[in-house]
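Narrative of activities, Objective 1.

The group set out to show that a structural description can be obtained from nothing but a protein's sequence at a throughput compatible with the screening campaign. Below is one input-output pair from the validation batch, recorded exactly as produced.
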Amino acid sequence: MQGPVARGGVIPKSTSGGFLGEVVFGGPDKRETQRAGTGPVFAEDPIVPVVVAEPEPTQQDASPTAAELTAIRSILSSSERRAWNRASRLPMLVHFAAVWGQILAGLGLVLIFPNVATFAIAFVLIAGGQHGLAMVTHEFTHYLVFPKRRKLNDLVGAWLFAGPSGLAFDLYRHRHFAHHRLYSTETDTKTLYKRDYTGVRFAVECFRSLCGLDYLQQVVNVLRRARSDKHDQGPHILSLPRAMVPLIGSQFVIAAVLCAIDPFVYVMLWAVPLLTLTQLFSKLRSSVEHLPLNSESGEDPEGKYYKGTSGPFARSVRASLVERLFLSKVNFCYHNEHHLWPQVSYQYLPRLRRRLVEHERDNADRKTLAREATYLSTLRKFWAGK
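Output recorded for this entry:
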């Protein structure tokens, strides 16, 4: 049975508490480090998706304003925020290791069965895994992996996940926290989603990523922003050379290992996917998370939010099994939930989804948050200009 399609930022009113999709991760608040007293529910964890049928929306509505989003955040108590700040260790280890496992599986496939078909499959699998490394980095960025041991959190995140995925960890954290403050505005540090995918422009955007142009643009934007922010950081000035050490170091180690096998393997099954297809996956995911459909736009044309939405725009989606391989690791598809409660670990985001559904059912007269059936269904709507 096909999942629901939300139009105009409307979430279908559901009598079920379930929701299958991406999640967003926790936040930097030092107080949110108390260990949960009860473990998370894994029935809706990213490895075992649960599909829940919901009715089709029958009306369109405006997206919530910033003030209304603040009111929605109050449905989660401060004690719940503290309890849901830390993930259960064993499942987290499995989920994080699975990302590297996908990369190793791709490499193993082409090394054991070298031919054109296995190379193509490996290329796509590895790019999906590299994108997954960046999504896991997001958890470390919000201090959600080792919240009470922040130096260890940053060391592991920078060297084992951010660096291999092509991210300078400290710069990424600085830009990402700014994104949380500024998303959907002109000064948002994330710009990949501000694209037009209508008709042939969709192919143009894919071409930009697959040629490496998007990666180069991102590098330029990051360096430019890092320089311009130096005067505003006070005692917390970022050291650009120091931030680059884990990135350069981890890439050097990967290059040394893969070149020892065969330089072709490093170039064509690591460097090229990282600079091309991985960037396309990242751009498509970011667009699904933050780009309003035309039908969701223009509520406040003179306002400060992108495409005239009445408030900062985010979208949660359901993620199919295939989409989870390439576009949505660690519950990344619950993006609305993440922006509402960035201090909550990815493992608890399905619970937040149920809480939101209950809140919307009890407040049927209020605006609801944008949700779509899948990444693919959203991209189809972008292409059709809906």
